[in-house]
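dumping the sequnces here before i forget
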Amino acid sequence: MIEAHGKNLVNRTCTPQEREERLKAACQMPVLDLTSSEVSDIYMIGTGAYSPLKGFMDSADYQGVVEGMCLKNGVLWPIPVTLAVTEEEANNIKPEDEIALRDPASGELVATITVSDLYRYDKEKEALATFGTLDTAHPGVKKLFEQKAFYVGGEICQLADDTKAFPFPEYAGPAKVRQEIAERGWKTVAAFQTRNPIHRSHEYLTKIAMEVCDGVLIHPVVGKLKEGDIPADVRLACYRALLQDYYPAERTLLRVYPMEMRYAGPKEALLHAIVRQNFGCTHIIIGRDHAGVGKYYGPFDAQNIFDNLSESDLLIKPLKFDWTFWCKRCGGMASTKTCPHSAEDHVAISGTKLRTMLAEGKRIPEEFTRPEVAEILAAYYLQL
Amino acid sequence: MIEAHGKNLVNRTCTPQEREERLKAACQMPVLDLTSSEVSDIYMIGTGAYSPLKGFMDSADYQGVVEGMCLKNGVLWPIPVTLAVTEEEANNIKPEDEIALRDPASGELVATITVSDLYRYDKEKEALATFGTLDTAHPGVKKLFEQKAFYVGGEICQLADDTKAFPFPEYAGPAKVRQEIAERGWKTVAAFQTRNPIHRSHEYLTKIAMEVCDGVLIHPVVGKLKEGDIPADVRLACYRALLQDYYPAERTLLRVYPMEMRYAGPKEALLHAIVRQNFGCTHIIIGRDHAGVGKYYGPFDAQNIFDNLSESDLLIKPLKFDWTFWCKRCGGMASTKTCPHSAEDHVAISGTKLRTMLAEGKRIPEEFTRPEVAEILAAYYLQL
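..and the predicted 3d for all of it:
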């Protein structure tokens, strides 16, 4: 089994007994309210999905990441994982304080943090490092610029039960997924990150991955998405229908994870890879404009960033793909790498056009979307 | 560029000027007649396709290969490459003799050998080591058992011009193919070994390889085949038609090479891999029953044999595939690794049935064979 990133899988969760005690103690602590992204990150840290992180980044880790994609211990890390507080909140916190972290949406105390340090940060510097742009039309930049002005670093202890926070039967943390991979005897596993329903073009990527690896982990994000993205429960209905009819069960694993997308393109592709290594995957599918949004990144930036890493930076390997489509002349799925024919021969529907067609009850070509998936999407768009 | 097997690409050919002089000298030497397989091996050795071999194996290399798949210098080698002589011929040869080697089919002196040693060998031991069987119904075993009783070891000098011996525009030696790969800037190249026309199932394998590698080398054998196999010129017409209509030229290279098949299954798969590494490939497609014949090998023997090698034994990596087919329910090409449907949904035609259909002028489903290829095969079978 592939090692966790930085070697050992972190576990900052607690057993039901510990939870009761710690919750009691947490009720006596000062409380900070979290954003939805910070709540997601609690679960990512707590379950080890962000191994080797044990908490929110202190100043040294943060500077290392922003300036050189590297934690202070030398481990590759592409994107800050931070907890933001206001100046007023910061004035009431000092190192070694224990603070309870609350999800304001549920009112639940989801974690405690042992403060290591507090620091002001440079939003423009972080935006450029992470997103490569200062444009607030970028959803990641917008969120960052609206964020509180100080960061609190420190190791966390996860109190909330993440499996209850994401009530999908497909929800599983890294330790569980690693166990499932081991039980299936897969030596090589390709992860497929997605925040969208799987149309045939992406099905094709996963099928190629299955040809060259022992199994595939279909691994959608179920953290909060940007406006216009399709909700997790609708997507899950699509994934289930697709897998049931078109994937061999013994070589496919559908699991979801709680991260919130940053839309940071290449830097996020690295983060997705690190997370998948922690989930026990040896490969990750990186298509065109992976984790991108708008036109901020070149189509292959998220693939090329892997080329500058050294062997020891990251054990998981990218499987890089180009445009994929049904080609009428090929009479099958193909890609710009394998098909010599012209665009007129390719079945292509833009996202906008697809939504319109679905909302208007129009039939989607089977070469583009499996009918079982189109039916679920149509029902969703019709009720919007 | 990937290193040649054993590090340096061997070159035992000569320039046109050298050829003239050496031919003159060779005319004064005693002469041995070669089998067609030995002639092929001359070209494989001479051009470096068999690097690091510089000649026919001496006793130490031969014993190492038969007993432990290893040359005396420690380099992996799976199958003897030998020159057989009768006892009578052996009696007239001694170490350090220079002997001219003649292709009796053309009467041409194709090489000279500087004899290092002469040795009797154990045909049953070699048959078991190479083919895993003593059954003379196996074409490789049959050829071995009919072979002369002694082997002559020694380095060779290739006199004949191999590019003229195989008058196909697609013929090219390893140095030339390496140069073509370098010019195209391919960092990863998958080789596809074949002795058959390419039907859609094999096209699919090459297309998957193209998705994960920068380019593909379609690399058919044009050495003598067993009875019933389709001649090289007919196959080449099929390859050309297929590539022209269904492959992107900038990612595909069709080249042929002069080896004669051994039908040695797993051991030959390793030999095919070594040869492709010498041709500059980083990957080789290994399907079910690669280089097999009859039912002598398990369907995955030729894949599993790679698992027992250490990293340094072989740099080229296998791309392993299972049955592939058009699946009506998937609505596309698929394999036992990717398709959950049953055999009734798969378009499958046995080799025997295909030949009958073609010979009777019946239409072959496009899901099985491209019409451009079927047409050429039909014309061939109709005139048989």
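The first helix of chain A runs from residue 16 to 26.
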